[in-house]
């Protein structure tokens, strides 16, 4: 499973929305009302576990969560640097 597909699955689970609601252009932070601070923390935990990343040290910011594509790129870079 590629990173974006897995991320879409995680977002679907965290936000209790169908996976079809998400694509690369889907905006997240500030655009999706149910993507609040609690959802963000849960998603970070899921990303950390699913992709074997230490998100505390990953250096993310609000731009990281702009869209599914920006979050996918962040995960790709973090995995490459791990």
From TrEMBL:
Gene3D superfamilies on file: ACP-like
Pfam families per UniProt: PP-binding
Signal peptide residue numbers: none
The Carrier domain, residue ranges: 1-82
UniProt superkingdom: Bacteria
Residues spanning the membrane: none
InterPro entries per UniProt: ACP-like_sf (IPR036736), PP-bd_ACP (IPR009081)
Protein name from the UniProt record: Carrier domain-containing protein
Species annotation: Bowmanella pacifica
Lineage: Bacteria, Pseudomonadati, Pseudomonadota, Gammaproteobacteria, Alteromonadales
């Amino acid at each position: 499973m590629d990173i974006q597909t897995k991320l879409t699955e995680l977002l679907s689970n965290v936000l209790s929305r169908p996976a079809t609601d998400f694509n690369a252009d889907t905006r997240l932070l500030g655009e999706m009302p149910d993507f609040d601070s609690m959802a963000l923390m849960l998603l970070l935990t899921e990303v950390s576990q699913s992709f074997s990343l230490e998100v505390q040290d990953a250096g993310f910011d609000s731009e990281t969560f702009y869209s599914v594509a920006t979050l996918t790129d962040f995960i790709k870079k973090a995995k490459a640097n791990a």
